[in-house]
Write a structure and sequence with these properties.
Blueprint lengths: L3 E2 L14 E6 L7 H14 L4 E5 L7 H4 L9 H5 L11 E2 L5 E4 L5 H4 L4 H13 E2 L2 E5 L6 H7 L4 E6 L3 H22 L3 H10 L11 H11 L1 H13 L3 E7 L2 H18 L4 E7 L2 H9 L3 H4 L4 H13 L4 H4 L4
Helix pairs in contact: 1-14, 6-7, 7-8, 8-9, 9-10
């Protein structure tokens, strides 16, 4: 399979009209983002889609390990340092049909925090890939770099585990993502100042939620307030709860969804959960993806169901299943 980029024309596999970008984030490390990104990508490829997995965890690239691959000779580091012409030069073919891989940077200290022009160059290159699906595995935290990668997709997926600290980090991450999103599109200096204050939890004006920002922005300029209302309405991240053991753990997803809507006005789509399954750590230990090594496991079934829910509006892929 040939993975093309936009500068090679519209004739590549999976033209722009069919491409879909998914970003897998959530703020906290250890929630299973990479595990989920890899297995979602495999499911999509088995449904007939051309898929590229991109490891944007620039300070700790490890997505290749989940696929049982050695560290490749070329990575995003080569793209950042202009040692290759484009992102197509760092796409690695895997043994899985229709699945390519782009591994994160190699020199951890410098690449973990790319400069602003380098980051937007990476985003432009990723956007140029001519495939059906691009899946980005994000690093931990809510730095501007992580948030900007998260916001480059139409399928912004949050992964959370049923732990209080993880849930708290998810609230903080998604608020930061929305604040970052609106700051990038609003040029009014006074409104930008309000958003900057909102990103400081202890700000003296007590700005805590998107509602507060919209109200204050509307006082400055009614049209900006209306635009922010529209952005809030259109901001609809998706949620996966991982490592579920009980019905109470399943219900956490519904609780998070309700809390976001009530207190922040953000509509979260709870797309499913993945049960705690010993087969998961066994597959990771073997360096073999769960959905291939243990396809009948409960966790694999959960991932398949989530994949189907996420692509239900993509009939060209569903018709290729089997």
């Amino acid at each position: 399979m040939a993975f093309l980029s936009a500068d090679q024309g519209e004739g590549g596999e999976g033209g722009e009209g069919r491409r879909s970008i998914w970003t897998i984030g959530g703020g906290k490390g250890g929630t299973g983002k990479t595990f989920i990104a890899v297995n979602l990508g495999i499911c999509l490829s088995r449904f007939g889609g051309d898929v590229v997995l991109v490891d944007t965890d620039l300070g700790g690239a490890n997505i290749h390990t989940f696929l049982g691959l050695s560290f490749p000779p070329r990575t995003l580091s080569d793209l950042i340092k202009k040692r290759v012409e484009g992102i197509r030069d760092v796409v690695v073919d895997t043994e899985i049909p229709n699945l390519g891989l782009v591994v994160g940077a190699q020199d951890l200290l410098n690449a973990a925090n790319p400069k602003e022009p380098q980051k937007w160059k990476l985003i432009r290159h990723i956007n140029s890939l001519q495939v059906d699906y691009i899946i980005l595995d994000l690093g931990a935290g809510n730095s501007f770099n992580v948030l900007d990668f998260f916001l480059m997709s139409e399928n912004e997926i949050l992964v959370v585990t049923p732990e209080p600290t993880c849930i708290e980090n998810t609230y903080r991450f998604i608020k930061s993502a929305f604040f970052r999103k609106v700051k990038r599109i609003i040029s009014h200096f006074g409104v930008k100042e309000i958003i900057d204050m909102a990103m400081d939890q202890g700000n003296e004006r007590g700005i805590k939620t998107p509602f507060d920002i919209i109200e204050l922005a509307g006082e400055i300029d009614k049209s900006i307030g209306l635009r922010l209302e529209q952005e809030l309405e259109n901001f609809k991240p998706k949620l996966i709860v991982n490592q579920v053991r009980t019905k109470g753990d399943i219900d956490i997803g519904f609780s998070i969804r309700s809390a976001f809507l009530k207190y922040f006005g953000i509509s979260i789509d709870y797309v499913g959960y993945i049960v705690y399954d010993d087969n998961v750590w066994q597959s990771i230990k073997k360096r073999k993806p769960l959905v291939l090594e243990f396809p009948q496991s409960r966790a694999s079934q959960c991932i398949n169901e989530i994949t189907l829910k996420l692509i239900i509006d993509k009939p060209f892929l569903l018709s290729s299943e089997g």
